[in-house]
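Supplementary Data S3. Sequence and structure tokens for construct A.
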Amino acid sequence: MSLRNVTFTLWVLSCWLQRKGLRIPARLVKTVLLLVFHANLEPEAEVAVTAHLGHLGIGTTVHGSTIIEDGVTIWQHVTIGSVDHKREGDSGVTLKRNVTVGAHAIVMAPRGQRITIGEGAQIGAGAIVRSDVPAGAIVAPEPSRIIERKPRPGE
């Protein structure tokens, strides 16, 4: 196992342990991921083994109500989940095949809803997504703009 995919491999292991009913070992692996990589990767999530965490998934949070399909890439410091902390009903996020989620993006389902990011969609770095995204779409955050300019001394 190379360092490049150690975070993802450990996360998949914790998900497998959780599905087998081995809750305590799954939580131990989750704790290691949190302490070493500052990644809060819930073992209750459904994760395809062909997905990928870029930059070791450092600082990434994925809630247990998340479904991640084949070929998905999630970069660092991303948050994916649901406003519902109790995971009641079918709330959460589904990332369809070959979705890319850029660094520092937030994909958060509103209370009581499941949102879907369509196949091949790209979520740009820093974007905030709270609704469905169609297949092949590109979501980019608002460009930065100057809201006030303070005069420099002598102006």
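Construct B, processed identically:
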Amino acid sequence: MDNFDYYVAGRRAYFFGGIDGNAENIGWHLKGKMGGFWLDNYRLFSSYSLSLNGKRVSPTGFQNKVSERIVNYPGADLRILAHPERPFISIRIESRAKIEFCLRQEMDLVWLEDRPSGNISVKVENRGRDTIVWRELEGMSSFVKVNGKATSEGDWLKLGRRGTLEAVIALGRPGKEGYEQYLLDREEHNRRYLPPFQDTIPFWARAGALELFFERDVGCGFVAGLGEFPWWFGIDGVYTCLGLLETPMLELVGKTIDNLAKFGNGLAPHEVTTAGRIYAYGRMNEIIAFAYLALKYAVKTSKKEYLELVDNAFSHVSGHLSRKLYPQGEGIVEVPISGEFALLDSACWLYSMLKELRDSNMMKDLKNSQFAAWLLEKYDREFLKDWYGKDGLFYDALTEKSGNFEGHFIQIYPLSMGLIRREIGERLLAKMEKIGNFKEPGLIHSLPLKTFEAGDYGEGDKNDIVWSLPTLLAIEAGIRYGRPDLSEKFILSLQNSLKSEMYGALPEILPAGGCTIQAWNAYAIPLIEQLSNT
């Protein structure tokens, strides 16, 4: 069968790599060590291989069982799971043959972080029928426990046994539990947060988000995706959490908000590594979007203390307003724009937050209530006049002198947020369809007016790529503005992506590309449930 990447993940451990066991040089925007067996912030092993009766075998099938993954081989089934809360990855290989399971040992245990000093010490200890291999380095103690024999030979740790083999890769000290107990722990964890199994987008989006809730000593929250940049992102966290507000994962939404606020000193950061290093500070769009999320969380939970994060955003925005009173700075579209500019997505986030403050009756609870009320009055009066061009399309950016149209997917924001009248929204959707914004899988990144480069995107350029997030916004726009046919078409595209490569994983790029699993796809949950109930 064709090879593809898969993953298992818990709060403190994950594996990401090909079903053939190869996890070397994983990365799309940036090649690196994001694949392999990661426990907390250490990559203990990279790739693996399986031999039966002395002959290396290749996979013939794959099953996503939610709590575990099963890779099928001729004569064996490899079952693998990540413990939901502890730094454990457990493997069970069921076969009657003589098994040799090989793990490629990682000697440089971290990626983009400070390297621990010293050499890794390896010690093999026999405990009755089990063998424990200790690998330790400067404050890090890890082990592999196997119900058979183990030898360290060069780059490889070889585990062997005739008949079913069980192994656990972990940090800390070994316990007496085995694979079946870890599976029970995983299933109980899933029952706490997930509904009964359904082979639907909302179910798989919830399951994917749950596995991407990472916890480390420095904090916890939803990371962006796997197998690239499994870090805490501002805008990714916003969309993930907005999709989960009406689910049992509300508790995890609150923890994610707290985590991002901590690292951003009350404002959203752009990227934070799970070792606690701020890789990039927040852009204007995600600072406002994060405040909008905090507001929605405050409305949902009645925890008005989260309005402090809204006030923080207003204080920040007030110092970066254009002459027309729109927030200046970078937005979600990663393309260079010179000079002072305000972007459509940032303006839409701010207008949407102002409307939510009015509708929720929480504006009066802000320190910046007068400023917010004044700004909302201005936007109600002039937003459409300022941003809506004569050709029936919204400007992507407003400079001090003019409005600029670049053809980016942010054209969908006034529609997805419901900021414009019905008749204008219907005309805009029809025009976007006519000029080529929509392809079969979804909403493209940009019209081919210019060519933008932001990494290795394989064949084609960035303009032509269909990200899942813009497509979700197009689904929302179709629901709001009388185009359920468009929404249903793109939902079908998501369903096809569920079945492409790793079954049950909603990717970053449609139909398959980028991160294999992307947390922001949780934003689809309320959209699809709303469409199903109409």
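Residues 15 and 37 are 5 Å apart (CA to CA). The chain has two domains: 5-188, 194-532.
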